[in-house]
Specification:
Length: 168
């Protein structure tokens, strides 16, 4: 058997880490916190310092160290700072975001869903909440962006539901 699904016993396969793999989860899913971005940011900064020290101490006198080490130090430093400053700690979960969304739209919510997205250059975590009113079929819908760090409503839109629902 030589198809794409055939795997020899010793072959390595890519797979998601356990905390990101939603297969087989029963119950509520806990979203990983964005503050995990600080770990690679710290690694980038350590590598930037190593590159900078090598570049400044050895300079062009070595065939192994050249101006690329200076550029690598600069690039790694910028990426490290960006990773660390975008490692926001999420203080608002999706249930709290649904509560804030209902307050913002002003009608009782029937069906709703929350999706984690990122906002802005420093990737601030945000909940995008889609809400439908309680009528059957729903007469109104709302889209609310809730900041996952401090819980404030960034933006919201409420409109009559334009979707055509087949009666069952």
């Amino acid at each position: 058997m030589n198809g794409p699904d055939s795997v020899a016993p010793g072959d390595l396969r890519d797979e998601l880490p356990d905390d990101l793999n939603t297969e087989g989860i029963v119950g509520a899913y806990l979203f990983p916190d964005n503050s995990r971005r600080r770990v690679p940011g710290g690694i980038y900064l350590v590598l930037a310092v190593v590159c900078l020290v090598l570049y400044l101490s050895v300079g062009d006198s070595s065939p192994l160290v050249n101006g690329g080490f200076g550029w690598a130090a600069l690039t790694l430093g910028v990426m490290g700072l960006l990773s660390i400053t975008s490692g926001w700690r999420m203080n608002v979960d999706e249930k709290q975001a649904l509560v804030e969304a209902q307050r913002a739209i002003g009608f009782p919510v029937g069906h709703a869903s929350a999706q984690q997205v990122w906002h802005g250059l420093r990737s601030r975590p945000t909940w995008r909440v889609l809400c439908y009113s309680t009528e059957e079929p729903p007469q109104r819908r709302g889209l609310v962006l809730v900041d996952a760090v401090d819980g404030r409503v960034i933006q919201h839109l409420v409109e009559d539901n334009p979707e055509e629902w087949a009666s069952s």
